[in-house]
Fold Alanine aminotransferase 2.
Amino acid sequence: MRRFLAERTKRLLLSSSLYSSKPTACSSPFFSRSAAASMSSSSAPPADVTVESINPKVVKCEYAVRGEIVSIAQRLQQELQTKPGSHPFDEILYCNIGNPQSLGQQPVTFFREVLALCDHPAILDRDETHALFSSDSIARAWEILDQIPGRATGAYSHSQGIKGLRDAIAAGIAARDGYPSNSDDIFLTDGASPAVHMMMQLLLRSEKDGILCPIPQYPLYSASIALHGGSLVPYYLDEATGWGLETSAVKKQLEDARTKGISVRALVVINPGNPTGQVLAEENQRAIVEFCKEEGLVLLADEVYQENIYVEDKNFNSFKKIARSMGYGEEDLALVSFQSVSKGYYGECGKRGGYMEVTGFSPEVREQIYKVASVNLCSNISGQILASLIMNPPKVGDESYESYIAEKDGILQSLARRAKALEDAFNSLEGVTCNKAEGAMYLFPRLDLSQKAIEAAKAAKVAPDAFYARRLLNATGIVVVPGSGFGQAPGTWHIRCTILPQEEKIPAIISRFKAFHEAFMEEFRA
Amino acid sequence: MRRFLAERTKRLLLSSSLYSSKPTACSSPFFSRSAAASMSSSSAPPADVTVESINPKVVKCEYAVRGEIVSIAQRLQQELQTKPGSHPFDEILYCNIGNPQSLGQQPVTFFREVLALCDHPAILDRDETHALFSSDSIARAWEILDQIPGRATGAYSHSQGIKGLRDAIAAGIAARDGYPSNSDDIFLTDGASPAVHMMMQLLLRSEKDGILCPIPQYPLYSASIALHGGSLVPYYLDEATGWGLETSAVKKQLEDARTKGISVRALVVINPGNPTGQVLAEENQRAIVEFCKEEGLVLLADEVYQENIYVEDKNFNSFKKIARSMGYGEEDLALVSFQSVSKGYYGECGKRGGYMEVTGFSPEVREQIYKVASVNLCSNISGQILASLIMNPPKVGDESYESYIAEKDGILQSLARRAKALEDAFNSLEGVTCNKAEGAMYLFPRLDLSQKAIEAAKAAKVAPDAFYARRLLNATGIVVVPGSGFGQAPGTWHIRCTILPQEEKIPAIISRFKAFHEAFMEEFRA
């Protein structure tokens, strides 16, 4: 070894001195410091990295939920801090994103107890711990640690996630659906988004490959399809029937795409709907399953809002349950279900936990999915643990059960009240119609804007609903996402507004919104 | 609303009954349950998703660190559990991956205390907490919570990460380098891998775009380049000079690629080296910076092993420090530095924390990077917090300082001893030469295999070093990665072996390795 090092040093010094004798030669790989410094003044751009020379798929991709409107909001927020009273409102109300805890929703105590104990297992044996943590959270932490080889919560796990946690999730799915689930089908991910990207990356070869997506849609799908170079094949949800999905309309879009030479690989369904908030009827789901089977489409089921249902007459049915209830098994339908810890009553967006359940693919393709997962090694362990907890919460008899249920019901009942209050408020406004918020975390009211308002938007070079959203923000501090960020039927305009602001703030939000809306309508009355 | 719902229900029932009257029509979007069930027996494949019909970039991608050898190891481990004594060893020793805590390394107490407190802030005010947690971990948790809007550790953060944490990281970088760092340049990510993918996605438009990568290389780079459809332009590290990097050789490769019509966008440097363990000399780093500036290449600096240096005569210098010391600023060089919480003395692989520091890009391109980051909303908050802690650990005077330093030094000194012991052991074996482990977590010994062994490998249809690694695993339970998984000079064979097994196990590993190697050499002696 010493010999190697000596040689190496000699050689480097040699080459260094050799080249520094002609420091201006462009081909020279070595420069003296002075020569280097002298060049730093050159105004020539460094690497040729411009918006024109980077990946056009990146440039094409759009993500409205964190788009321009949010940049304006962040600027306003800074101005409020530096110059209090500089705006007609004293806080920014972020109704643009499903981020409950950012608006004051509290985490579920049991979940956080277990996460904290798994982060610092050294305290599990200490007496004081029993005074600070519930007995079942301590028991659960031990249970989880025993499922982790070497109890090493700081180690990379299996690339699909820790086996014991996947077992718990599979058991939770089986209990939910009444049909078996296999932990080998579970891929734990850092939230649902990376899982969606993984499937798009797998399925999309070129712009000749298409994915059927609902319009309006959550822009993760359009963004992911753009990033992976495929084509989005839109199918419109029917606002007149509460954002119903007509497979006959989907079939027409599919056939149009095929005549254009697009090979359609998959159909995305978001249930409960984002941004539209509807909960699909069971017969509607059966029709979708049948359609995907008949047409040989992978069914990508975004089911992250499965716990967010606010109406008596609707329940969540997973597409896997529906398919199995129709007698369809692995050999009949390729189905991927996405779940996340970010939504539901838990709303743990910052933990980036989630999973996809992958069924109906050949072992060879499954191996390819595993390989892609393995390149990123694994998802974060706290998120993995949390994903197992939401699918296996405290049970009757556990010390935490009653407080857990109280926290869960409190959050869901409050969300339902907020949804109803905002829905009624929107429907009370001139030129606004809003479908029922059956589920998810959003309302997607339709704005009937005057020609004068549309002209003003055109003059401002923005879509009419973006124009409205900007005016709303500047007047009230309320941040909503223009419908144009999700797609909408041509000639219709919407905004997406979350139902997440704290309940006690809702009345003020409604009155500020009303006042703005009336003034806006007056200003642009023809 | 009621009207809408009534209409909707009516329409769905109508269409449902309408269609179920002709259940066998393939074009029918609705089916009765019986008709559906009757179809499930059809053996026709579901969606056309085969290895032939998925994204060929996915199929092309390879990741040896979790490749075939690991699958074999997992099978053997199961056999050891189900049939103890079924193999000539009683445990599998995973020396294939830099996953310290999976092999018994303990987490740094202060880091875990802060993470636990941020996961469950409800206990911060409790008296018992002071008995369980150090006073500075409690103070740090408060400090971090105060940097998070609404103290909401369960909320999505800014897509680059929480501003206050980025400030702490930027301050840590500035203290490390002696040159300023800007928190707006920091993008927090779920480990370093997603950051590398993000840059590849940004830079690669087609197979006509190339990235200069060291050979041997950490296969994340070849995998990411394959997944994003670019071309890997190899440059060989010189084993004879302790894996030195000769920019003259790199330049030759660059020119060859350009004559082939490849537009080379960036150069990857891994320092300290993976899998090669070298620490680059300062003049060598200056030459690389100069080369990238001259050739207009983005410098992608993998600096995740910056804390892992085991020799007196070497220090870590960030490429940013080197560039600034040469007088080069933002306008001279586009530079991205990758850091991770998974390596160093902390080894927190499971937390998936990391960041990239992005300098020298135009505001327009930065906006594009931000947009891609925003599509995944944000990285996990625990990982973000941990990334800030490793760049801002306890200071002199803090209650945890002495125990923290003891833990840190204990881990690093033990790693240095293990590296030396394994290095000496490899160099003592017939036909094996091993460069000095100056840094990182790996040794990359070269195997001089007999023609007879190479023939036997050929007969087994595997690379000779994969043949050796398989034999080693089956005989000893030791898992190493064949050099062919990283790339190596044609006609040379290597294995990558981590230095991570617990120190008390090293002697046994060495003797098992020696015994296997001698038997292997005997068996295949010409």
Q: What stands out?
A: Chain A touches chain B through 152 residues (CB under 8 Å). The CA atoms of residues 24 and 38 of chain A lie 10 Å apart.
